[in-house]
Design brief:
473 residues; alpha/beta; Rossmann fold; Beta-Lactamase; five-stranded parallel sheet; five-stranded antiparallel sheet; 13 helices; FMN; PAS domain-containing protein; phosphoprotein; chromophore
Amino acid sequence: MDDAATGVFHEPDVTERVILLMSPGRDRELLADWLEDAADYAVESASDASGLPAEYDICLLDDRALRSDRESIVEHSRDADPVYLPHVLLTTRDDESVWDVVGVDDVVSLPVGRDELHRRIENHLRTRRASLRLAEREQRLRLFRRGIEAASQGITIADAEADDTPIIYANEAFHRITGYDTDEVIGRNCRFLQGRNTDESTVETIREAMKRNAPVSAEILNYRKDGTPFWNRLDIVPIRDDEGDITHYLGFQQDVTQRKRHELRLSVLNRVLRHNFRNKMTVIKGYAERIEAGESTSEDAKRIRRAADELLQIGTQMYEFDTLVADGDAEGESFDVVEIVENEADALRRQVPRADVVTDLPDRAVVSGHPSLRAALRGFFSLFEDVSKIDLDVAVRERDGEVRLTATDRSGTLRRHGVEIVARDAETPLDHLDRLELWLLRWAVEQSSGEFEVDASDDHPTVTIHLNATEAG
């Protein structure tokens, strides 16, 4: 199908300008009158190159103008490139050397019939119109390319007609979001972004939409080159040719990890608060009723106090959560991880009679983290306060600008299933924890530009956090 017919490119509705670069005289005047009457051109005359306008569509010149103004003519053609700007010599000379003159695109031998001259002029103007359309297309393509490269969204194009629908283009934002360089992406199906916790039902939804040749939008858990997960807002649009056949798929990728994390945090907080607040208030109400009925014992008061203390602890965790969400970009604080581990380990040894807390620590290990990180570390150790037995190994190592804290629980306080939920970052109403401490630790570590890992491959779960080391203050 012709481009002009589709409306993609538009020929300007203007009269084409013909310049007569010739010596003044009757011949130039007659030629100008004829061109204006016969072909409705906008004809202008000039005696030398100084009279040439900045823009015109074709220039007819005589031998005198060629001799005196050839350099200017060549310069005009060069400035118009890549658009074709024809210069046609009208001459009575019959030697073949005129065809080799630089700056001349055609030679018309005089005398010439009007129809022949008109045909020659129109041939050159048709070529110029085509070059203008081509230049416009190239300009738009460059604009589209700059726009795609400057986009904040990842943009990919996949070949729908090739085996396994390989990616043939990926913009700079895709590299920034995923960490993959262009040469690592081209030729591969985009499923390489999927990982062990990618939801198969979401993948199937995308696959089915593509089978139906329909556009699809989904939020899917993908993985960067370094293995870190991120939530990808994915939009896929099929691209069709003039016959309606799908030739390519246009993909848009947007990192929505922060929003998904906030949504999860709010969901976790809401569920834990509702569950724990309701349970504790039920305890308080029940024992209060016993007091009113005169059936209470001293133990009832202790239970009420314990429930109230736990409610206060929930309030503290709410404050920590609020700090995480509201101060996501808060300036980091420096503190010694070793000091916190030593203090918490000593407290556990004092509080729990059967506490076997083994520490392997350097003298100091100063880190920089979110203001909530210090409290989140203490909250993690508080998980072991209300148990009858502790068997916990804690090690801290500093290397290459990183502080790594590893805690292995051998007493069963940290449930394997629970740490896996936090590791997947995927709690559901039916698959969840009843406490916030592990969540708060993970979120505080992530807000501190660190990494949170768990190893639940056996019955002794290990929690490892990686933090940025800093100089002691």
